[in-house]
Specification:
Layout (H helix, E strand, L loop, with lengths): L1 H6 L9 H6 L6 E3 L5 E3 L2 H11 L37 H15 L16 H11 L4
Antiparallel strand pairs: 1-2
Length: about 140
């Protein structure tokens, strides 16, 4: 997608911000629910996370699309991991939980280096709590 947009004058496409940055493709602002035109960046994506923190469901699902707030980027999304709550072999379950615990802790430090935004601490904490229920 990025290469096609880059090679076609006047073309518009949608890719993750990280892909646009790596390919040095210009990207624009999107109008949010407050009527402001906001560009995707760490601050606007974090603003969308923070604006929706209160609506995190018991199973840690949340939608950041069209989040309220003057500075919220309206097409912010979260990368999800679906896994069975039980039934994995103990070795596999342990390895998976260790990896996901790392993702939610130290791995968050890598997100900005890759063009993503770290989860707000309260959301990461809820995800860690949910991960603790996996057997």
């Amino acid at each position: 997608m990025v290469e096609k947009v880059k090679a076609t004058p006047g073309a518009i496409g949608y890719v993750e911000r990280s892909f646009a940055i790596r390919a040095s493709v210009a990207y624009g602002s999107v109008q949010n629910s407050s009527g402001n035109f906001v560009k995707a960046d760490p601050a606007s994506m974090t603003a969308a996370c923070v604006a929706t923190e209160g609506s995190v469901r018991q199973d840690v699902r949340i939608s950041l699309v069209d989040a309220r707030g003057e500075a919220s980027y309206s097409i912010t999304g979260i990368t999800w991991v679906y896994l069975p709550a039980s039934g994995l072999s103990s070795e596999r379950g342990h390895a998976l939980k260790e990896f996901l615990a790392w993702v939610l802790e130290d791995g968050q430090k890598m997100a900005p280096l890759l063009g993503y935004t770290s989860l707000p601490a309260s959301l990461a904490s809820k995800a860690r709590e949910k991960l603790g229920t996996v057997q």
